[in-house]
Amino acid sequence: MPISAGCPTMLELADVHAGYGPSHVLQGMSFVVGRGEAVALFGRNGVGKTTTLRTIMGWTTRLRGTIRFQGQDISKLRTDQICRLGIGLVPEDRRVFPSLTVEENLRLGLFQAPYARRAVREQRLQRAYAWFPKLAERRRQAGTTLSGGEQQMLVIARALMGEPKLLLIDEPSEGLAPKIVADVFASIRRMCAEGISIVLVEQNVRGALDVVDRCYIVERGRAVAEAVPRDILERPDLRARLSI
Ligand SMILES: Nc1ncnc2c1ncn2[C@@H]1O[C@H](COP(=O)(O)OP(=O)(O)OP(=O)(O)O)[C@@H](O)[C@H]1O
Ligand SMILES: [Mg+2]
User: Fold this and answer.
1) What domains are there in the chain, each with its CATH number?
2) pTM of the predicted model, to two decimals?
3) Is residue 197 a contact partner of residue 34, using CB atoms and an 8 Å limit?
4) From the first residue on, what is the mean pLDDT of each consecutive set of 10 residues in the chain (244 residues)?
């Protein structure tokens, strides 16, 4: 549901400046995500999309500006505190642990719930397998023996093990065959249907437009335009910004 339809704000970045040590990458990043909404961040290479997701997770040097999650200022919290509030990240580089099995990789997603009862942990595991049945077939296989598409499913499923309310997903379609890309986007659509809010970073603009409610175009560390998917394809000025 688009935020313009009146749903409450889940995430809000206001004039966020952040970077890596002396490297000042985000230069006034501002955008909002509504509850249950899927929002895309589009932009050319190196404009700060990944840095935006890392900054929300508390992995960069945050200089100024506020990041609010469900109304709470999280801009000074540690990453583990941010995760516990219900934000998950599916990173660009997938980070499947090679020597661990699929199931062990999935169980790592429970790190925020170390004291959860065994039944709860098993329930989350079964839910992950229900989302991605292929992972159930491969539960005893080492992470690295999976195809690229299966590894992407595994990192999404691992993030879902933490039961996030907001999931940040960085370039999930990168390097995957078109059929697998369609599966990945379908899984994102399902997450939205279950009420999880999404921030999706994608180079595959056309594919992502089928999944998201709204999008922002990022240039030089800030969101310079906001649009609904239909506008991106119909407005030559927006298409030019994205070279599509
Ligand atoms: N660990 C780091 N230390 C210093 N600078 C970094 C670091 N990571 C990224 N940068 C710089 O920050 C800028 C933004 O990088 P970022 O990865 O956020 O871009 P992006 O929009 O995700 O690009 P891409 O589409 O290529 O993934 C780039 O100039 C990059 O070189
Ligand atoms: Mg990136």
Assistant:
1) 7-94+164-242 (3.40.50.300)
2) 0.94
3) yes
4) 65 98 96 96 97 98 97 96 95 88 93 75 92 94 91 94 96 93 93 95 95 97 96 92 89
Distance of CA 143 to the CA centre of its chain: 21
* Nearest CA-CA partner of 71 in 106, 35, 104: 35
State if residue 93 touches ligand 1 by the CB under 6 angstroms criterion. no
If you write DSSP's letter for every residue of 196-209 in order, what string do you get?
A: -EEEEE-S-HHHHH
The finding on whether 147 has its CB within 6 A of some atom of ligand 1 is no
The amino acid at residue 137 is E
- The CA distance from 110 to 112, in Å, is 5
Q: Give the number of the atom of ligand 1 that is nearest the alpha carbon of residue 44.
A: 25
Which residues 6+ apart lie within 8 Å of 127 measured at CB?
Answer: 160
Token pair 């093990």 in the structure block, residue: 161
